[in-house]
Amino acid sequence: MMYLSPIVGQITPPDALVAGYGAQVDTPGKGLILLFSNLIKFFFVIAGLWVFVNVILAGFTFVTNGSKPEKIGEATDKIYMSIIGLVIMLASFVLTAVISFLLYKDPMYILSPKLYGPTTGATPGSVNQVNIYDKGNNQ
Predict the structure, then answer these.
(1) 55: domain range?
(2) What is the dihedral of CA 10, 16, 20, 21, to 10 degrees?
(3) Separation CA 139–CA 55 (nearest Å)
(4) Cα separation, 109 vs 90, whole angstroms
């Protein structure tokens, strides 16, 4: 095998295998939970930027069309709808935190998911949990 390593490359096992089965690893967790959480955050950022652009464009339309009441009405409606969309986005975070608090006694349990090792009891607040957003400072 030593003869193939310059050609194929060096293969290093994952940290979890080196540390042993069920050991706590300092690398953040990966997987579908992290992917979906990051996608949801990305879509909320895009939606927030969309609201910002809509409010700016509607404000410009409102200011430049002073003599056309129908354009002013359209701009006002666009501003109201953008604000309503922003309120719905924020309310979804608040509702998720309330549901998370009622079910798990931790408001960030759903918003900031944690991955548990295979040998832990998998209870919130256990010693062997890995926070997927923590940069190496595991609990």
Answers:
(1) 30-131
(2) -130
(3) 43
(4) 17
Could you tell me the two tokens for 110?
């759903």
* Angstrom distance (rounded) from CA 127 to CA 139: 7
* Chain segment 79-133, per-residue pLDDT in tens: 999 999 999 999 998 998 899 899 888 888 877 776 665 554 445 555 555 555 5
Residue 8 within any structural domain of the chain: no
In angstroms, the Cα distances linking 27 to 65, 75, 85, 109, 127 are 56, 49, 37, 20, 16
Report the pLDDT averaged over residues 30-48: 81
Question: Using N-to-C axis directions, what is the helix angle for 69-104 and 32-64, rounded to 10°?
Answer: 160
